[in-house]
Amino acid sequence: MTRSKELQHIFVTFYGNFIDTPDFGSLRVRMNTAIGVCMDPSIPENFGKIQFISENCEDPLMATIQYDTSLTEDKIKLVVPSNNSITSFYFPGFIDTHIHASQYPNCGILGNNSTLLDWLNKYTFPTEAALSHLPYANIVYDKIVSRTIANGTTTATYFTTIDLNASKVMAQICSKYGQRALIGKVCMDSNSPEYYIETCKESVSSLIELVDYLENELCNPLVQPIVTPRFAPSCSRELMETIGNLAKNKSLHIQTHLSENFNEINWVENLFPECENYTDVYNEYGLLNEKTILAHSIHLTPEEIQLIKLKQSGISHCPISNTSLTSGECPVKEMFADGIEKIGLGTDVSAGYSCSILESAKAAYAVSRHLAMKKEKPQLKLSVNECLYLATLGGAKVLDMDKHIGSFDVGKSFDCQEIDLISPNSTIDIFEWQVPTNLPNTKSEHTSLNKPEPFRMCDIVSKWFFNADDRNVVTVWVNGHNIQNLNT
Ligand SMILES: O=c1[nH]c(=O)c2nc[nH]c2[nH]1
Ligand SMILES: [Zn+2]
């Protein structure tokens, strides 16, 4: 298709099987469904957003014209899965609520016995400091953004480094690829190595300049700033208060680390004796609100849980990182039971060894089971559906973006990944008699005494969850745009 022809399309209708998790624990399966997305730049309020959903639809083109009779066929692009079979489906794009783009060169390098504070000093700070060299930052940031997209991540909340210019480079790269991103220039003016520290004044002025750059120069609504005090030990009271005020005045997101490791928690208690607990430090210095993302939050006291609930902050559960640095097991189900409503997943590269949210979802499943065994509480186990919710709509809630992303609903942006269990390089083995018939839960002619019943769609999802990787991600869209095949 020529570029000029493509430009005429002001509406895209996606057709196939749509699966999402509208609630914690439920799986919504909509077979043979048409979802219409407005791509008309002259209607900015609808651009990239889902306009209609027609279930059990036989003629998606007709459904589109019925939705809007002013649309003619030449204005509509119809997208069907490349392998239009029952083993392929559309799923909401993954949301990574905590990832250090700058640590990607260390991904998979952890040091066997490292725990948080020695790992930071030995591996992390030198790697982050090196990214002030912009050609290096360009290569690393380009790779992590394309790699997360290849793994189905449509929204990511990034930490960069203290370096302003490298943070601008990261924003440019996210914008180039079309990924939805929050860009966090790290703020740290205390208790850090002399080769990787800023003064409070430098930190605040770099942050202000980054915010100004994103608002007034880059001007891509998909790429937003996020205020990023690294964690309480590396921030002075003055720094936290100043950037907290900036976040409040400009309605910006905030991200930081909380309660990851016992040595860290003791350190915070010694550094901030005026505060009730670790969470209270962020509250005291104006950093705790409904747009705050708290990574880890493993060892919280009941008082801290109540404070987070009161302030409606979100928690980013990073199970691969927590296992790798032996930080602990975040009690996700207990926190939900205690009334915390906003919990999502973070890869936490490079304390986490994978930039795939699907891998993090599997790790969340495993960690919850270890916790259930340790505490002899089977109710602490996370199900596949619950893990997939954390990876999508749960993450959207953490980012306070659940009105816009995280599931397939009219009015939401079309942020989506097409999954295929039998894509060309797939390593998933699925046998002919296991392939479901077109109608969910009906028996097919395969069924006999000797042949088992075919899978239901929830089995197909389970197979994907445990057996898949990026080879099963066929295409990725953000705001209705295909962002995976940038160079095609
Ligand atoms: O997992 C983590 N990664 C980090 O880079 C970091 N900095 C403070 N605390 C941290 N925890
Ligand atoms: Zn982190």
Automatic annotation (TrEMBL):
Q: How is the cofactor bound?
A: Binds 1 zinc ion per subunit.
Q: Per the UniProt entry, what species is this protein from, by scientific name?
A: Maudiozyma saulgeensis
Per the record, what are the reactions this protein catalyses? guanine + H2O + H(+) = xanthine + NH4(+)
Protein's job: Catalyzes the hydrolytic deamination of guanine, producing xanthine and ammonia.
Q: What family is it from?
A: Belongs to the metallo-dependent hydrolases superfamily. ATZ/TRZ family.
- Specify the protein name: Guanine deaminase
Metal-binding is among the record's keywords: yes
> What domain of life does the UniProt record list for this protein's source?
Eukaryota
Give the UniProt record's GO annotations in the biological process aspect.
guanine catabolic process
Among the Pfam families in the record, one is: Amidohydro_1
